[in-house]
Design a protein that fits this description.
By secondary structure, the protein is an alpha/beta fold. 38% of the residues lie in helices and 16% in strands. The strands form four sheets. A seven-stranded mixed sheet has the order 1-11-10-7-6-2-3, with helices on both faces. It starts with a helix and ends in a 5-residue tail after the last strand. Bound molecules: pyridoxal-5'-phosphate. Pyridoxal-5'-phosphate binds at residues 73-75, 99-100, 102-103, 161, 187, 189-190, 211, 213, 224.
């Protein structure tokens, strides 16, 4: 049994021509150096400058949205996204338990309550059929607003997350949003370059949050963006993330408690160069999937996770799903001991001490997937 995993590790090292293969590395060349150097030469390295505007325009164009507002990281983007759609203190926000902690934290920053729901095996994201059943059970509509009968709180929004770049069933979710009067906010942190029925993820909800952390498909060092087709929401996001300062040549007047969340120009310079390469990164990652498919078809009791029918994934992180008999940690140990950096999925939110007493649906698929998912090296080749 262990033999096949040692051999698997060797195949990956051969593929990357390295003795130690990282999970995901950013790729830079002269372009990044040119733009960042140019940014430094202009002196505009901070919260104002032409690269930030250009990065926002390039990003909006790539995803096919009207507007993008660049911020310091994806978590800040989620925080502001939830705030501008009207999530209030004590509201509940539906989200997968199987996500990175930022999704839940962003709701908590607003005094809102994450409410964890289960995912599907096809997408690794929220399962609309299960969510429908759950809401039929615990929800009640009053004056057009959905309430949780068990807690008495309003349920304001649903935040699907496109896990490892794989789009969720957006049609199903949009239908539910209609039925239960929920706002859709997409956590698209991992899905830049991923499409659902030919349309870019992050353009289905009222707003979406993207991340450009160092481990994402393109990076600005640290960074994020709020994306929307609604000009008013975009303007408000920009205002809130620039300390809510009323534009004026010399006066400092702030009309609400805002945030210092603006992406620095020097980070945006890096991002402009990265965005130019995004189509190539996506192509390389999809090719890597084909290579892994061949290798993994030789292995027993494990499969490579691939995109569902309506989806075109960026394959940000390559994902294998272990059969029931295999022990995730044993395999992680073999791979990592052998120099192939691999990791499990995040511990589900409802299993973290900080979120264990929060409202939740039945989460059996989440718990099963938690035991069976491993991410393997995914740097574009
Ligand atoms: C990366 C990520 C974020 C947050 O991004 P940061 O830029 O690291 O703050 C949010 N949600 C998900 C699912 C992520 O993977």
């Amino acid at each position: 049994m262990n033999e096949q995993w040692i051999q698997f590790a060797n195949e990956i090292k051969k593929l990357y021509e390295k003795d130690v293969v990282p999970l995901h590395e950013p790729i830079f060349d002269e372009k990044e150096i040119e733009y960042v150097t140019n940014c430094i030469k202009t002196g505009w390295v901070s919260s104002v400058g032409s690269y930030v505007n250009r990065f926002e325009e390039d990003l909006a164009k790539f995803v096919g949205a009207k507007r993008a507002v660049a911020v310091v990281n994806g978590t800040a983007a989620l925080h502001i996204a939830l705030k501008i759609v009207g999530v209030q203190e004590n509201d509940e926000v539906l989200m997968p338990s199987l996500t990175f902690v930022a999704t839940a934290n962003a709701a908590s920053y607003l005094g809102a309550i994450p409410h964890f729901v289960d995912v599907s095996y096809e997408t690794l994201g929220i399962d609309p059929v299960k969510l429908d059943k759950h809401l039929e059970g615990i929800g009640v509509l009053r004056n057009g607003q959905l309430y949780n009968k068990q807690t008495g709180r309003r349920i304001a929004a649903v935040v699907p997350m496109h896990t490892f770049g794989h789009p969720v069933d957006l049609d199903g979710l949009l239908e539910l949003c209609d039925k239960f009067n929920l706002v859709l906010v997409e956590d698209a942190a991992e899905s830049l370059g991923s499409y659902y029925k030919g349309k870019h993820t992050g353009t289905f909800g009222k707003v979406a949050a993207f991340s450009f952390n160092g481990n994402k498909i393109v990076t600005t060092g640290g960074g994020g963006a709020i994306v929307t087709n609604d000009d008013q929401l975009a303007d408000y996001a920009k205002h809130l993330t620039t300390t809510a300062k009323i534009p004026h040549r010399w006066e400092y007047v702030h009309d609400e408690i805002g945030y210092n969340y603006r992406m620095p120009n020097i980070n945006a310079a890096l991002g402009c160069a990265q965005l130019e390469k995004l189509p190539k990164f996506i192509e390389q990652k999809r090719k890597l999937t084909d290579t892994y498919k061949k290798i993994i078809s030789q292995l027993e009791d494990v499969r490579l996770f691939t995109e569902s029918n309506n989806a075109q994934s960026n394959y940000w992180l390559q994902t294998i799903i272990l059969g029931e008999k295999l022990k995730r940690n044993d395999i992680l140990k073999i791979l990592n001991d052998d120099g192939v950096m691999s990791r499990p999925i995040w511990k589900p939110m409802h299993m973290l001490k900080i979120y264990k007493n929060y409202p939740k649906a039945k989460l059996d698929y989440t718990e099963k997937l938690n035991r069976s998912i491993i991410n393997i090296p995914s740097t574009p080749l």
